[in-house]
Amino acid sequence: MIRLEIANIETYLKRVYGDDAKLLAAGDIGSLDAQGMKGFGYGKPLLIRFMAGGEIREAVLSIMKGDKYGHQFYWDRAAILMFQHETSARMERHVRPMGLGYVDDDNALIPVDRPREFFIVNEKLEGHDYFLDLERIRLGDFRDSDLELARDYARWLARVHSRKLDDAPLYHRRIRNLIGSSECILGMIDEAYPHPYPAFEDARFIALEKRLVDWRWKLRGYAHRLSAVHGDFHPWNVLVTEQGEFSVLDRSRGEWGEPGGDLATMAINYLLWSLYGHDRLAGPFERLYRVYFGEYLERTGDAEVLEVLAPFFVFRALVIASPQWYPDHPASVRQGLFNLMVNVLEDDVFDWENIDKYMERGA
Fold this sequence. Notes:
Blueprint: H1 6-17, E1 22-27, H2 32-35, E2 46-52, E3 55-61, H3 74-87, E4 101-103, E5 109-111, E6 128-129, H4 130-138, H5 144-161, H6 168-180, H7 185-191, H8 202-219, E7 227-228, E8 238-240, E9 246-248, E10 256-257, H9 259-274, H10 283-300, H11 310-320, H12 331-343
């Protein structure tokens, strides 16, 4: 529980305004003088009166409380406060920001000074991108170790997805984001394709979106499935060492979500590479797909995942069929992915063992 202690507020003021800054009073807005000095909880605006540079000043210190409306995590709330700090002063008659900061694990208030961009520093991992292995396989060099690696992916996902969370609003949020986010389905439709696009006309996009509304309402009944996820588990986010060990990069879209998203994200890439040379899942990529999918289902016992997979395949098909993201695909590859994207929504349960049926010409 965050506590806004008097000493920490004064330390913050000294860091921002100099060592001569002094907190004079803190309390509820409208009752500052009656409230006096004390410790305060969080989520409620706090009026502070302080001396800085020989001048008595007043300010309101606010910390957002988490809620189920897209503010579950501190980084959600940070984004809103950063927006307010950056833009409020540019609006006529709007209150002016005086500072931006964060509360650390010791309840200290740490100022963020004139932020422009944020960065992250990660460790350097050894290995090559997994997509290079898939390209090697496409060119004819298929190894037994490739099958074992696909099994390892499935085992790893099974372990990750074994962590569950009881939070229905968060599951609903993840499904909303899947369909409506700027970086997911509707964002891909709007920005990753030209309009009109002869290979998939706007009328088909409209029909696709309407069908996805049905799936959104269906998936509301699966909130019990909320699990730890990676969120972007594809061949460009996996590093493989020469010893066959793998590491993952770029966890995305939150810690919790629908495990079927991870399962579908890697699976569709086996189909993508197979479409270079076939009109269906075939050859070594079919073997990889079946080993990966079968191992996952055996390890998790999660047959229910097949009831929720379709919209996740749509999202990933939109990504890997995009002429912006993948400009060099032959028309036949793109068409196969479009067929999958349309047809998969018509089955209530994904028929993973007969995926080729989704490759037929869509509506």
